[in-house]
Design goal:
Shape: globular
Order of helices and strands: EEEHEHHEHEEHEH
Number of helices: 6
Radius of gyration: 18 Å
Largest sheet: 8 strands, mixed
Structural class: alpha/beta
Length: about 280
């Protein structure tokens, strides 16, 4: 339990949980429902980084937990919100944050499913996971994204006007919406996020989004990708685009899963960084 740290009540900067307790808020290991025994996941060391687990005020009775990785170097750094897959915050998402931090970003991965109390990465059956994920409404998640960007803007180590967002699978759709509803987002990169519900909203984008997709993805069809590409063109969103990898499946960046495609994952990562740089997330 967190106690009040000031007579007038706790301030956001007081909620740096790892400085007060050795118990992590997040699962240690890779999502059990998806991890492959043959996988050799990338592990990024934390040397030169500050790793924190924080609680972000979001107007809910319990604040939003988040994993943060950032450079130890002084000064203000650009920031990237990292949105998880349906499996919540586990070692893959944490490593994504550390990879970005090594490149000079403040990387923040909020636990969007924390209200359920479920330990999603520990679940072995996707049929148990999906109902939990569906409990999180778009409105709720979009509000949590805005709370996260507001928290970043208030940090002395972050550039308040240099915030991007990237997300994977379930998180890919969150990226598209964030670029529509969060004015603090400068650019987004969506890895194989659902498109069908968002095609009609392409004109709402205020920040450019790069969508990275696999042609072999059985859940996101060529028709969906083509429809979004056409909608972006019709809406004049020239900074946003869809890139499709011919030999990639869904989850091609997830290096702990059998769907991992190293070549396309590396290419997508470089495209992500270029998209952020081109749109001022530097």
């Amino acid at each position: 339990m967190l106690n009040l740290t000031r007579p007038e009540g706790s301030l956001p900067e007081d909620f740096h949980v790892t400085r007060r307790t050795a118990v992590s808020m997040f699962f240690a290991g890779y999502a059990l429902a998806a991890v492959s025994a043959e996988a050799a996941p990338i592990t990024t060391p934390a040397d030169g980084l500050v790793i924190e687990e924080v609680l972000i005020p979001n107007g809910a009775p319990k604040p939003l937990p988040a994993y943060v990785a950032r450079p130890k170097a002084p000064g203000r750094h650009p920031a990237v919100i990292v949105v998880n897959e349906v499996f919540g915050i586990h070692d893959y998402i944490k490593d994504i944050c550390r990879r970005l931090a090594k490149l000079g970003y403040v990387a923040v991965a909020p636990d969007f499913f924390y209200r359920s109390g479920a330990n999603l990465p520990a679940m072995t059956d996707i049929q148990q996971i999906i109902p939990v994920v569906r409990q999180a409404s778009d409105t709720q998640i979009d509000g949590d994204v805005r709370a996260t960007s507001a928290w970043i803007k208030a940090r002395a180590f972050a550039k308040a006007d240099r915030i991007g967002i990237t997300g994977f699978c379930w998180g890919g759709a969150v990226v598209w919406r964030a670029a529509m509803v969060d004015p603090d987002i400068r650019a987004g990169v969506a890895w194989y996020g659902q498109l069908k519900p968002l095609v009609a909203r392409a004109g709402e984008l205020h920040a450019p989004v790069l969508g990275l997709y696999g042609a072999l993805d059985q859940g996101i069809t060529a028709e969906d990708r083509d429809a979004m590409a056409a909608a972006l063109k019709a809406a004049g969103k020239t900074g946003s685009s869809i890139h499709t990898y011919a030999d990639a499946q869904h989850g091609f960046h997830a290096d702990y899963r059998a769907s991992y495609n190293e070549r396309d994952a590396r290419d997508g990562w470089q495209r992500m960084l270029e998209h952020f740089r081109a749109n001022g997330v530097v």
